Inverse folding.
């Protein structure tokens, strides 16, 4: 016999509880909607960020890399500014053979985000990339609350801009996406396995 689930409007009578406290259906619904946002707000204090850095160290980041993380990252996300130039996206589209509609590229395939993590953010140490991803979790599959670069401080932003410029330069000197990836691996040792592409 299947157990009948209570309806949200049943409230306390239906047995809904949050942290052991009975709540009405509307309150439960609001809690479920606000859940990820509340967790993000709770992580914003400096003490919480220090605990997160300590957790990273326990997960395998060495103390040296922990210092490197602190040297490149911010405790909270900064305001959004356009960081990746349109030229970067135009070159990806050209190398992939994708059609560009309009003067600027605003809507991009999801693969562009994956390529950006591999080609640009992958050039940071793995500890920094892991820290950025832990700091900026998915709120729903495929969507993060902030852009990764919003967690980079001035030194991290400077490195990011350098990585973007170098990638665009290599893209301009490549005719295919495969050729670009091979050149990035050879010139900058970008950490992806090239044997898969042969």
């Amino acid at each position: 016999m299947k157990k009948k689930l209570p309806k949200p409007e049943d409230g306390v009578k239906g047995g809904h509880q949050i942290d052991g406290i009975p709540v009405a259906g509307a309150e439960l619904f609001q809690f479920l909607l606000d859940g990820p946002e509340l967790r993000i707000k709770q992580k914003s204090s400096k003490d919480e960020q220090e605990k997160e850095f300590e957790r990273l160290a326990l997960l395998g980041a060495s103390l040296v890399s922990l210092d490197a993380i602190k040297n490149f990252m911010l405790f909270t996300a900064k305001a959004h500014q356009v960081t990746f130039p349109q030229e970067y996206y135009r070159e990806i589209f050209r190398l992939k053979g994708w059609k560009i509609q309009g003067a600027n590229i605003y809507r991009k395939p999801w693969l562009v985000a994956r390529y950006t993590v591999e080609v640009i953010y992958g050039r940071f140490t793995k500890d920094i990339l892991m820290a950025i991803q832990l700091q900026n979790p998915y709120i729903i599959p495929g969507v993060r609350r902030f852009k990764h670069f919003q967690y980079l401080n001035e030194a991290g932003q400077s490195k990011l801009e350098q990585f973007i410029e170098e990638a665009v330069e290599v893209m301009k000197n490549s005719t295919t996406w495969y050729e670009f990836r091979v050149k990035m691996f050879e010139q900058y040792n970008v950490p992806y396995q090239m044997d898969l592409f042969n």
Summary: Helices lie at 25-42, 46-58, 63-72, 86-96, 110-119, 126-135, 154-172, 177-188. The chain has one domain: 46-197. The CA atoms of residues 64 and 105 lie 39 Å apart. Residues 154-172 form the longest helix (19 residues).
